[in-house]
Specification:
Largest sheet: 3 strands, mixed
Radius of gyration: 26 Å
Helix content: 40-55%
Length: 178
């Protein structure tokens, strides 16, 4: 199981617990639980900030090797401590995913990333199962390295170029001898 999956499961688990508390109707308990989550996030974020500060945030510095770790990159991004900008981290995530895609754009305001599958050199490209697996791989990598991406929109792959059919005049038929 990847760090992205673990982080997503932990996030879902927190939401489930908060939802269960909300279902009890006890508004004070629900508010206290939400405050507890915020306080813990701030506490761990402050600790990570101190670690980053003391190690130095330069990608080539002591923190550099940790930036390639999915969980560490995710935590640094979550707390706005990652030394690389979001576009660099998106490129890194797409590279890590290993799926041939073309980056069409990223809207920082909405968090929407637009991709297009790269033109493939073979196969029919019709397997929706492999497309779904490919999309999950990309989304998991993005969740780790660029959680600012809230949605991935995929445009259709460009159709492979069709050979141009040239129509020309036929050469004259040779004269037949009777």
């Amino acid at each position: 199981m990847s760090a992205a999956t673990d982080a997503r499961q932990a996030g879902r688990r927190v939401e489930e617990v908060l939802d269960r508390l909300a279902e009890t109707g006890d508004r004070q308990a629900c508010a206290a639980a939400e405050e507890l989550v915020r306080v813990l996030m701030d506490f761990y974020g402050a600790g990570l900030a101190r670690i980053v500060e003391r190690l130095g945030a330069a990608p080539g510095g002591p923190l550099g090797p940790l930036l390639d770790d999915e969980l560490v990159a995710s935590l640094l991004s979550l707390h706005d401590l990652h030394p690389q900008d979001v576009r660099t981290r998106i490129a890194h995530a797409l590279e890590r995913a290993g799926e041939p895609v073309e980056l069409l754009g990223f809207d920082e305001d909405s968090g929407v990333l637009r991709l297009r599958p790269a033109a493939a050199g073979g196969g029919c490209g019709c397997s929706s199962e492999s497309e779904a697996a490919s999309r999950r791989t990309v989304e998991d990598a993005l969740a780790c390295f660029a959680p600012e991406v809230t949605r991935v929109e995929t445009e259709a792959a460009p159709a492979p170029p069709q050979p141009l059919l040239q129509i020309t005049a036929r050469p004259p038929a040779p004269a037949q001898v009777p």
